[in-house]
Design brief:
With about 350 residues, the protein is α+β, with helices and mostly antiparallel strands. Helices cover about 40% and strands about 25% of the residues.
Length: about 350
């Protein structure tokens, strides 16, 4: 390291110096930590080759070098072998140095992207619930008229065998009415009390294993330091049960794994200084429900928490929507990351 870079050694921001061929000539300790590569291994590497957007970045930096202007990218994906790409913001500035005319600054933006994704999800959920609520109200009125007319018709029928048809109309109207009720209300107001989330998870575990005893195993990876939280026990049990049952039902319908047991993992950790649903919290519960099932189909992945959206034949599409509603009642959010063989539901709940 030459003396000119001494001031960069103590910076918390990742900084790299590049030569005119865009090769790394210097990387400070923060860059080594962020990229998980020792400085000696970074030196001499082509800077654009570190990112998925290599061709675009190479052209942009070449133009910046020639025109002597600054370059900024808000979302570059740093490629890590065996891991998910790391999203980074990058700003590149020109210097007067002949052997290192460019300096690049890198900042992780994963947390910012997560917050933006949560905000979009909250807005979408609110709009979706309002749409469903209005639609359900419009359906309930003619549904009541339909059922009443069927009852009146049944009284006028002389032949008992014809009443079988009116009973079908009445029973189907009742079924639709029950569905409308589930769409319009979460059944009852929350009843908050202090509770242990691991006791809730053990209850969910027992319920799922009782229903799917032959097709699923559930492993627990609990952090015993997680403090109690204040919440509605029954609503949290129902929310987590809906998520876990969703995975177990996916195993049951997976045709290419007859006789193979699916695996679900319940994992809890404490998250510190985290933003949830637009509010900053000192402490939060980070709960993962992980399964090795077929994954969520790509065509519904962005809509999986919307009412009436289901990947399962015969599914109502209300389980995950209701889970999201209950979690939001507790000031939390649910995220889903899915690919074949690994689906992760990440639930964040405030602990303060």
């Amino acid at each position: 390291m030459t003396g000119r870079y001494a001031g960069l050694e103590l910076l918390a921001t990742a900084v790299l110096a590049l030569d005119e061929r865009l090769r790394v000539r210097y990387a400070n300790p923060a860059a080594e930590h962020l990229l998980a590569i020792a400085s000696r291994n970074l030196l001499g590497q082509q800077f654009p080759s570190l990112f998925a957007e290599r061709a675009v970045l190479e052209r942009a930096l070449g133009d910046a070098l020639q025109a002597r202007w600054e370059y900024a990218a808000q979302n570059l994906n740093y490629e890590r072998p065996g891991e998910e790409p790391l999203p980074l913001a990058c700003v590149v500035a020109c210097t007067d140095s002949a052997d290192a005319p460019l300096v690049a600054e890198l900042r992780p933006i994963g947390e910012l992207l997560r917050i933006e994704r949560e905000e979009r999800l909250i807005d979408q959920q609110a709009a979706s619930r309002e749409l469903i609520r209005n639609l359900a109200h419009e359906i309930r009125n003619p549904l009541g008229g339909l059922r009443g007319s069927a009852q009146l018709l049944e009284r006028e029928l002389d032949r008992p065998e014809l009443r079988e048809y009116t009973q079908v109309i009445i029973s189907e109207a009742d079924r639709l009415q029950a569905l409308m009720d589930r769409l319009l209300t979460p059944h009852r107001a929350p009843q908050p009390a202090r509770l242990n989330i691991h006791e809730v998870l053990e209850r969910v575990r027992n319920l799922v294993l009782a229903e799917f005893s032959q097709g699923v195993s559930i492993l627990c990876n609990y952090d015993p330091s997680v403090p109690d939280l204040v919440g509605d026990r029954e609503q949290l049990i129902q929310a987590l049960l809906n998520v876990a049952r969703n995975a177990a039902q996916a195993f049951a319908q997976e045709a290419n794994r007859p006789g193979r047991r699916g695996s679900i993992i319940f994992r809890t950790r404490v998250a510190r200084q985290i933003t949830i649903a637009r509010h900053r919290h000192k402490l939060a519960l980070e709960l993962h429900v992980i399964d090795d099932g077929p994954g969520v189909p790509a065509e519904i992945r962005e809509r999986i928490f919307n009412p009436l959206v289901s990947a399962r034949e015969g599914g109502s599409g209300l389980g995950l929507s209701l889970a999201q509603t209950y979690v939001q009642y507790h000031g939390g959010v649910i995220e889903c990351d899915s690919r074949p063989g690994r689906t992760v539901f990440r639930i964040l709940l405030p602990l303060t």
